[in-house]
Amino acid sequence: MKKYSAFATPYLIWMLVLTVVPIILMLALSFMEIEGLVFSTARFSLSAFEKTFKREYLIAFAQSIKLAGLATLFCVIIGYPVAYIISHLKIANRFSFLLVLLLPMFTNLLLRVNTINRLLLPEGFMKNVFGISLNFSGTEAAVVLVMVIVYLPFMIFPIYTVLEKIDPSLIEASKDLGANNFQTFRQVTLPLSLRGVSSGVIMVFLPCATSFTIPYIVSRGNIKLIGNIIEEKMGLTNQLSDYSVGSLISILILVVVMGALYIISKIDAEGETLL
To answer: Is the pLDDT score of 223 beyond 50?
Structure first.
């Protein structure tokens, strides 16, 4: 046992330095009034709490919830049928489809977003190849579309995982009792797969709501989400930087994320978590 504990030590140090220490630092900054990161001039203050609830930040928060909610809704609408179809394919075909969904996740997010955004430009790929001029680049619709494309696999995989685990005998029993395919799906498959849907919703909604790369690139800086506010406030050379406000917003989001993950861990009554 001591041998394995020794192997875990570098990981624990890594977690302490790059996770625990930054969280403690942000928590401390939330209660300070400080110029840059010069702690010698810092003093205790609750001004960050007052600034955090300014109208500008509340609008950004509401915008984040709205766009993330729309992206999540479309991911559910698209992702559930895709996951359902994949779960009913032969094993070899399942692997091929899952591989297609998985491969883009190994590429850089910035590269993917820039590539998709170029397809949406009025004089971009669609115009040059198909003669179709897309005029919604830089809009909320474009931001939602890119979010759906980027985060759709995070909806499909948890739903597929749950669908694959459903006991086929339950489906057969439903049909033996006289239920048709739709009734079987509505009364057996759908209720049993809602755990996967709830996991997918959290895994899509949270990164969408806190994203700053997608809205910044796709909207050309015209749409500010809460992630953009944090990036702006934590900037090293930005004149608008305010580490106290940025830290407080980050801590509040961290609390929301931890709460959501706790809820997910308690969804399965049998104690089998989905993450």
So the answer is: yes
Which of 244, 218, 222, 221 lies closest to 233 in space, CA to CA? 244
CA distances from 35 to 30, 46, 99, 151 (A): 13, 15, 49, 37
3-state SS class at 44? strand
* Structure token pair of residue 68: 């993330």
Integer CA distances (angstroms), 126 to 132, 146, 263, in order: 5, 15, 42
Full set of structural domains in the chain with CATH: 53-265 (1.10.3720.10)
Q: How far apart are CA 256 and CA 160, in angstroms?
A: 26
Separation CA 275–CA 262 (nearest Å): 10
More confidently predicted of 14 and 122: 14
What are the residues whose beta carbons fall under 8 Å from the beta carbon of 215, sequence distance 6 or more? 67, 143, 223, 224, 225, 227, 228
Integer-rounded Cα radius of gyration of the chain: 23
Six token digits for residue 160 = 């597929």
Give pTM, 2 decimals.
Answer: 0.81
d(CA 188, CA 157): 20
Q: Is the separation of the CB atoms in 213 and 109 below 8 Å?
A: yes
- CB–CB of 233/243 below 8 Å? yes
- 138: alpha, beta or left? (left if phi > 0; alpha if psi -120 to 50): left
CA distance linking residue 110 with residue 249, whole number of Å: 24
Query: Please, where are the H alpha helices in the chain?
Result: 2-15, 21-29, 47-52, 55-87, 91-102, 109-120, 125-130, 140-165, 168-176, 181-184, 190-209, 213-218, 226-233, 243-265
Q: pLDDT tens, 37-71?
A: 677 778 888 888 888 888 888 888 889 999 999 99
